[in-house]
Amino acid sequence: MSCFLEKNKYHFFDVGYRKLFKQGERLKLCTSCLMEKYKEYLNFFQYRAIVIEPFKPLNAYQFYNFQQMKKYNFRKEDIEKMKVLIPGIKKHCDCGRSARFLWCSPEVYFRDVYKFNMNSQYKGDSLCIKCLCNHLKNIIIREQIYFDEVFPPMGESDGLITSFEC
Ligand SMILES: [Zn+2]
Ligand SMILES: [Zn+2]
Known about the structure:
about 170 residues, 6-stranded mixed β-sheet, 4 helices, about 20% strand, globular, binds zinc ion
């Protein structure tokens, strides 16, 4: 599937996580189709996540479960702080649907995508899938972001959705 016109910019949606998984679609998509696909995967995903608003200078948007984060360069103390925030996600979004995502501003980055300055007192917004996707889409359009790589949330545990440099 490829919905965009060759001359236009597109997002690269990579469910195969750089071929880490054999199965998994790899699609070039416009912003509307990207958000449709992203929503589909959020619906498959049964866990919760901290979501950092897309941060324009960074060209990728990825999900890491807390287990995977340990294998990368994320600091242990940051992973622990995020785990503490997860139970603070309210049961319901302001719209009334059930919430599983904690929306955070990019100010939580501490000069580095691997370092964060959030603490257990951090107050993000608890969002449902629909409101999360609306927020994401608005920012992507407003900031004219095109991602070179999008990994949707998948797998069997809570985690972090974050901008990244790829
Ligand atoms: Zn499209
Ligand atoms: Zn909502």
